[in-house]
């Protein structure tokens, strides 16, 4: 039985697939551990290093546009809302989203999915002209050639967290999209302590949105958009050889998730997903096409608005993934 090399983040709801207790029909599985998983994205897109790999969804869409031989399976292992993902520098004077115009905002790379989601929210919900923001980056995009003129590169090796604390940028994204990594990207993606948010805007970094969870839930209830943060991609040559592989993978991922839910129906072992389950009133990580159509269409639209995808790029989810049997899961 041929083994598939599989690179995924550390997800309990995928563990049964990784350890073999839920089989992928017709295939064995050999885990390739990359931590954090973001380190595998470029290796997959540029070198097709793995048979199956989790990817950032914007990177996957851009890879499709560039005819990279990858095929998607509608398994979205991670989700998160983003109103809480921007911190403002102490003394920056930023109080409302429009105050970001004319400012310098740190993000790991322009095309990271968090950046696309947040710019989409800022633009579509709050009327921010994101082209009037200077985006300060310290890493390369996985797929290059789409960077606009209002992007500035950090060249002295300092992290975005350092620049935020020093007041040399006015705001920055949190986590792997910004201040959650120490040093330059070439240092091995070492995690760093996030700058602690302060209640006093003059005492330290503070959140742009104080009631982020409430705003995220309200946005979801109004729009049906639930931001995707991972998608499973397979080397296209393997799909040509075995057209049933996408369905087999989807079935195994869905079965693996069901096992996790059966043992922890309230997601208590994964508190963020548990909180998001309460926000959306149901499954915090739905798989399949129908449940994710609004989110996929929004991500394509935001990417087009930001110049990352061409205007004629398809937004129909059925054109973005392999043909297969994908019942809601």
What does it look like?
The protein has helices spanning about 15-20, 40-45, 55-65, 115-125, 160-165, 210-225, 235-240, 245-265, 270-280, 295-305; strands at about 5, 30, 50-55, 70-75, 85-90, 105, 135, 150-155, 170-175, 205, 230-235. It is an alpha/beta fold. The chain folds into 2 domains: about 5-80 and about 225-320, D-Maltodextrin-Binding Protein, domain 2; about 85-220, D-Maltodextrin-Binding Protein, domain 2, CATH 3.40.190. The strands form 2 sheets. It has a 6-stranded mixed β-sheet with strand order 8-7-6-9-5-10. A 5-stranded mixed β-sheet has the order 2-1-3-11-4. Strand 6, helix 4 and strand 7 form a beta-alpha-beta unit. Helix 4 (about 115-125) crosses helix 10. The chain is globular.
In terms of topology, how is this protein built?
Blueprint: E1 3-7, H1 15-18, E2 28-31, H2 38-47, E3 52-55, H3 57-65, E4 70-73, E5 86-88, E6 104-106, H4 113-126, E7 134-137, E8 151-153, H5 160-165, E9 171-173, E10 206-207, H6 212-223, E11 231-235, H7 236-241, H8 245-263, H9 271-280, H10 293-305
Parallel strand pairs: 1-2, 1-3, 6-7, 6-9, 7-8
Antiparallel strand pairs: 3-11, 4-11, 5-9, 5-10
Query: Can you tell me the CATH class of the largest domain?
Result: Alpha Beta
Let me know the CATH homologous superfamily of the largest domain: Periplasmic binding protein-like II
Query: Which runs of at least 5 residues are low in confidence (pLDDT < 50)?
Result: none
- The beta-strand count equals 11
Label the overall shape: globular
Distance between the termini: 27 Å
Strand content: 5-15%
